[in-house]
């Protein structure tokens, strides 16, 4: 865990879903606020725009939209905070950022094609790798 | 013995019970062994405990051909019934007692020279070497007495006296019999202070590395060379401590089975040269698979580390079965059994696995002491059993040919790892799968259906051949075949292209007629069987074909079809040998498939078979020996070209790993797609390359020459951007708009079931049902041109072996010119 966070005390658990929800929004806002400095630190301006990064963050959060247990939400928030801190502390390198948040989890070589629409799952998987 | 040692012995306090005679020969190191005789007497005094029945070792099973021949012996007090003629060591094995051994090997003759297998037999004055001693009725064998232990310890001490202690730099370390047995039976201290002897290393060629100082003179290698491999290269020189294993004069070991001496050498004296210092055996992951370099389908184990194949070894099927009766044994587990309350009920896999999943956490609570205890308690109370497949396939015994064993470095060279398209300048450019498939599909649609041709290569698995055939059929073409089967193969009668006698069945034969085949280079394991038969029953061998070198006694009858005609018409002296034989065998080489007059030759062979009574209801001795791994499955799946000159008019050629094809007649403007794993001959003419996985990287079904289907398993991941063969064709079919209806291996296998159900009966030999008599009359004339040899270079026959450096070295140094 990063050292700035170490000084901050871990906040107490959210009592209900409502509190957890507002914390998520707080986190989203603070993450959005740090986007300009992230772009600055990692020289991302030539590969990505602020709004793209914003939607990536939103998408990462929405991945867990089905979670209703406040404890779990707190845990996920904690992890998100940790990640954000690592990024701001330059604990990552540029290619990590590009790989994880700019290109996405599908890898760098994915050749997306508009023709992919009608394809069967088999063919989509086939283009990705031999193992499915 | 050093003086200091003697002195230390002299001042050691002695057990008061030891007699003065023992006092003089205190050569034991463990106190309890100091007076074995007296403590043996003490052991005898106490009553025999009720011994629980033991399970035979390594699944050893006895099969009584004749119930009267059974005798009973007692091993450590436990009675076992064994057939007459078994040795004491085998009796112990049946009783579940493992006897340490070095020189004894179940597939070689008995030498009895290492003395490690000493056991005590009641009423015999001295311990006996159990491997050489026949078991007699009522014999009382004791394997665990102080006398036996002391004997083993002594033998071990003598063996280690001249054995270098270089285990840390020895390739055998970790799988060494001497290492294991000295841990189990050796003394806990050494008394040796003198110099060890050293022996000059011998040069046995590019495959076998020798460190002869490590040799313990068990002579397994000598016996293997002269009995199985049929070369008299190795022998024992000198006497006493000057004894050495060697080749008399400086000479390489030129046998196609020489690699097996690496496996049978119990110590690190003979190890693999290409594998030397590459890996330790405990780092390796073993995958049981099938060899594809010839049509025998030898059972192999691929040892890999990470993404690399490190070595290939034969699989020891014997660990599961010792005789043919195994599959028929009544006590085999064939269904899942679940015991909810006291009786076993047959169950399905999902239920059983669900039950396991349910029970395991509960048991973990019950047994806080850890997983090992958990499993012991779980299985002793046995609530569930799951049957596993025990193979009774005994194709290659436990030997494999050098090509099988050492071709693996070819899997790392010359690999194709990206889809590529040949540009206008004639150079290949790497592209994405999407682009490559789009181009292939587009071209395939531009040509007429009858101009499309597909050829499966030697190493293709049945799944991909099925997919290729379905794909081309959907494109409207039926011009598809497997290389090596010729233009008009006879795929209708299964008995016309498989080995009907079966490889095991060859051992019953007493006369062999080999027609246009050289089993020694075409199928080394089949040749080893023929040699075994020749040695065991004095079988007679005659061959028609180019003069070659066999490693057993044989008669060269002639070089061409004329000799065959003479035999068929009864004008040849060999006719009497065939007609007098009880179980005659005719083996026709698949090299003849390429001849124009093959139908005529086959009908001549059938005439010989009919006259010699070779095919009877109880014996089918008419065999075809195929050349490559894909052939039998290809013919089963009906990969037969529609017209014999389709290559000349082809515009779109799909080569699925086909490299040994003559493409000279192909029109210049034809579009060639090469799907395969090696940049070999086929690539030179290709316009598009689709990289595929090799046999070590995929799961595929192969049928061997005797009609036994077996499966390979992936041992290592695929290279680069390669894909499994059938997946490429399935993907291509979708891009081309003729989507094949299967998405999984299971799906393609059920499609295969409708065409050739025998391909799904894995590890079972499916004999052909119909006889030869249903064939139509042949009108062809026999061409008197002599037979040619089908395999020019034993070491390099396919794309993998041609890419292998070791195989190149072998063909440079070992091949008989
Ligand atoms: S080389 Fe190996 S197999 Fe041959 S005699 Fe020596 S120890 Fe035995
Ligand atoms: S195994 Fe019996 S003497 Fe060697």
From TrEMBL, chain A:
<dbReference type="InterPro" id="IPR045299">
    <property type="entry name" value="Complex1_LYR_NDUFA6_LYRM6"/>
</dbReference>
<dbReference type="InterPro" id="IPR016488">
    <property type="entry name" value="NADH_Ub_cplx-1_asu_su-6"/>
</dbReference>
<keyword id="KW-0496">Mitochondrion</keyword>
<keyword id="KW-0249">Electron transport</keyword>
<protein>
    <recommendedName>
        <fullName>NADH dehydrogenase [ubiquinone] 1 alpha subcomplex subunit 6</fullName>
    </recommendedName>
</protein>
<comment type="similarity">
    <text>Belongs to the complex I LYR family.</text>
</comment>
<keyword id="KW-0999">Mitochondrion inner membrane</keyword>
<keyword id="KW-0679">Respiratory chain</keyword>
<keyword id="KW-0472">Membrane</keyword>
<keyword id="KW-0813">Transport</keyword>
Automatic annotation (TrEMBL), chain B:
<dbReference type="Pfam" id="PF10588">
    <property type="entry name" value="NADH-G_4Fe-4S_3"/>
</dbReference>
<dbReference type="InterPro" id="IPR001041">
    <property type="entry name" value="2Fe-2S_ferredoxin-type"/>
</dbReference>
<protein>
    <recommendedName>
        <fullName>NADH dehydrogenase [ubiquinone] iron-sulfur protein 1, mitochondrial</fullName>
    </recommendedName>
</protein>
<dbReference type="Pfam" id="PF22117">
    <property type="entry name" value="Fer4_Nqo3"/>
</dbReference>
<feature type="domain" description="2Fe-2S ferredoxin-type">
    <location>
        <begin position="69"/>
        <end position="147"/>
    </location>
</feature>
<dbReference type="InterPro" id="IPR054351">
    <property type="entry name" value="NADH_UbQ_OxRdtase_ferredoxin"/>
</dbReference>
<dbReference type="InterPro" id="IPR019574">
    <property type="entry name" value="NADH_UbQ_OxRdtase_Gsu_4Fe4S-bd"/>
</dbReference>
<dbReference type="Pfam" id="PF09326">
    <property type="entry name" value="NADH_dhqG_C"/>
</dbReference>
<keyword id="KW-0411">Iron-sulfur</keyword>
<dbReference type="InterPro" id="IPR000283">
    <property type="entry name" value="NADH_UbQ_OxRdtase_75kDa_su_CS"/>
</dbReference>
<dbReference type="InterPro" id="IPR006963">
    <property type="entry name" value="Mopterin_OxRdtase_4Fe-4S_dom"/>
</dbReference>
<dbReference type="Pfam" id="PF13510">
    <property type="entry name" value="Fer2_4"/>
</dbReference>
<keyword id="KW-1278">Translocase</keyword>
<dbReference type="InterPro" id="IPR050123">
    <property type="entry name" value="Prok_molybdopt-oxidoreductase"/>
</dbReference>
<keyword id="KW-0408">Iron</keyword>
<dbReference type="InterPro" id="IPR006656">
    <property type="entry name" value="Mopterin_OxRdtase"/>
</dbReference>
<keyword id="KW-0520">NAD</keyword>
<feature type="domain" description="4Fe-4S Mo/W bis-MGD-type">
    <location>
        <begin position="284"/>
        <end position="415"/>
    </location>
</feature>
<keyword id="KW-0479">Metal-binding</keyword>
<dbReference type="InterPro" id="IPR015405">
    <property type="entry name" value="NDUFS1-like_C"/>
</dbReference>
<dbReference type="Pfam" id="PF22151">
    <property type="entry name" value="Fer4_NDSU1"/>
</dbReference>
<dbReference type="Pfam" id="PF00384">
    <property type="entry name" value="Molybdopterin"/>
</dbReference>
């Amino acid at each position: 865990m990063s050292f700035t966070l170490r000084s901050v005390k871990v906040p107490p658990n959210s009592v209900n879903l409502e509190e957890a929800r507002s914390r998520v929004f707080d986190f989203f806002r603070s993450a959005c606020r740090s986007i300009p400095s992230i772009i600055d630190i990692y020289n991302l301006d030539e590969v990505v725009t602020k709004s793209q990064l914003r939607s990536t963050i939103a998408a990462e959060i929405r991945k867990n939209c089905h979670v209703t247990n406040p404890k779990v939400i707190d845990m996920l928030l904690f992890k998100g905070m940790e990640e954000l801190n690592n990024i701001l502390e330059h604990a990552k390198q540029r290619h990590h950022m590009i790989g994880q948040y700019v290109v996405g989890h599908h890898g760098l070589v994915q050749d997306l094609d508009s023709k992919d629409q009608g394809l069967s799952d088999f063919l989509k998987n086939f283009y990705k790798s031999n193992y499915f | 013995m050093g003086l200091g040692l003697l002195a230390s012995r002299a001042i050691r306090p002695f057990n008061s019970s030891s007699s003065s005679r023992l006092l003089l020969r205190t050569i034991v190191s463990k106190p309890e062994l100091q007076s074995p005789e007296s403590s043996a007497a003490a052991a005898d005094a106490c009553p025999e405990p009720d011994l629980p029945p033991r399970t035979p070792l390594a699944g050893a099973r006895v099969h009584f051909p004749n119930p009267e021949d059974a005798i009973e012996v007692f091993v450590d007090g436990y009675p076992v019934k064994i057939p007459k003629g078994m040795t004491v060591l085998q009796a112990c094995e049946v009783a579940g007692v493992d006897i340490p051994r070095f020189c004894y090997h179940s597939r070689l003759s008995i030498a009895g020279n290492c003395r490690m297998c000493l056991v005590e037999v009641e009423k015999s004055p001295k311990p006996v070497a159990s491997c050489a001693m026949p078991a007699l009725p009522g014999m009382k064998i004791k394997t665990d007495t102080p006398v036996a232990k002391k004997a083993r310890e002594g033998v071990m001490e003598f063996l280690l006296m001249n054995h270098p202690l270089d285990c840390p730099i020895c390739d055998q370390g970790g799988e060494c019999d001497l290492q294991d047995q000295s841990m189990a039976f050796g003394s806990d201290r050494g008394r040796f202070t003198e110099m060890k002897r050293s022996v000059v290393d011998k040069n046995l060629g590019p495959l076998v590395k020798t460190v002869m100082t490590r040799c313990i003179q068990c002579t397994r290698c000598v016996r293997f060379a002269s009995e199985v491999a049929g070369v008299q290269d190795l022998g024992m020189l000198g006497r006493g401590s000057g004894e050495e294993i060697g080749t008399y004069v400086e000479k390489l070991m030129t046998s196609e089975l020489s690699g097996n001496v690496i496996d049978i050498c119990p110590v690190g004296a003979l190890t693999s040269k290409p594998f030397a210092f590459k890996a330790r055996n405990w780092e390796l992951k073993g995958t049981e698979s099938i060899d594809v370099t010839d049509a025998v389908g030898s059972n192999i184990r691929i040892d890999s580390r990470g993404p690399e194949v490190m070595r290939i070894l034969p699989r020891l099927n014997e660990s599961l079965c010792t005789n043919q009766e195994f599959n028929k044994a009544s006590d085999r587990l064939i269904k899942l059994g679940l015991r909810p309350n006291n009786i076993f009920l047959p169950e399905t896999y999902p239920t059983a696995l669900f039950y396991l999943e349910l029970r395991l956490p509960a048991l973990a609570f019950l047994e806080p002491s850890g997983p090992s205890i958990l499993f012991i308690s779980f299985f002793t109370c046995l609530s569930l059993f799951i049957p596993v497949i025990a193979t009774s396939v005994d194709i290659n015994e436990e030997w494999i040919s050098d090509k099988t064993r050492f071709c693996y470095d070819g899997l790392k060279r010359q690999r194709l790892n990206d889809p590529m398209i040949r540009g206008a300048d004639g150079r290949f450019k790497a592209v994405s799968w999407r682009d490559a498939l789009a181009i292939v599909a587009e071209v395939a649609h531009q040509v007429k259906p009858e101009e499309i041709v597909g050829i499966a290569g030697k190493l293709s698995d049945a799944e991909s051949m099925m997919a290729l055939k379905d794909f081309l059929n959907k494109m409207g073409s039926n011009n598809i075949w497997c290389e090596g089967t010729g233009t008009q193969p006879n795929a209708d009668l299964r008995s016309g292209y498989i080995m009907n006698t079966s490889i095991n069945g060859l051992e019953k034969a007493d006369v062999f007629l080999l027609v246009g085949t050289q089993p020694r280079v075409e199928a080394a394991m089949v040749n080893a069987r023929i040699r075994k038969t020749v040695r065991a029953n004095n079988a007679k061998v005659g061959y028609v074909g180019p003069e070659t070198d066999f490693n057993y006694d044989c008669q060269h009858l002639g070089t061409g079809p004329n000799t065959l005609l003479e035999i068929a018409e009864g004008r040849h002296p060999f006719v009497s040998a065939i007609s007098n034989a009880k179980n005659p065998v005719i083996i026709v080489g698949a090299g003849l498939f390429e001849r124009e007059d093959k139908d005529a030759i086959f009908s001549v062979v059938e005439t010989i078979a009919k006259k010699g009574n070779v095919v009877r209801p109880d014996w089918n001795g008419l065999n075809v020996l195929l050349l490559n791994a894909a052939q039998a499955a290809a013919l089963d799946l009906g990969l037969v070209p529609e017209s014999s000159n389709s290559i000349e008019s082809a515009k779109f050629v799909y080569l699925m790993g086909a490299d040994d094809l003559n493409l000279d007649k192909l029109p210049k403007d034809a579009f060639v797609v090469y799907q395969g794993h090696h940049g070999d001959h086929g690539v030179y003419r290709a316009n598009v390359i689709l990289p595929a996985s090799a046999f070590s990287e995929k799961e595929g079904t192969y049928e061997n020459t005797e009609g036994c289907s077996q499966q390979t398993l992936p041992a290592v991941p695929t290279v680069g951007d390669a894909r499994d063969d059938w997946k490429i064709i399935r993907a291509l079919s979708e891009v081309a708009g003729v989507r094949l209806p299967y998405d999984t291996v299971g799906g393609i296998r059920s499609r295969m079931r409708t065409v050739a159900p025998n391909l799904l009966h894995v590890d079972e030999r499916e004999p052909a049902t119909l006889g030869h008599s249903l064939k139509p009359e042949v009108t062809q004339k026999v061409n008197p041109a002599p037979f040619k040899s089908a395999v020019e270079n034993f070491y390099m026959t396919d794309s993998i072996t041609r890419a292998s450096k070791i195989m190149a070295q072998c063909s440079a140094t070992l091949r008989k010119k």
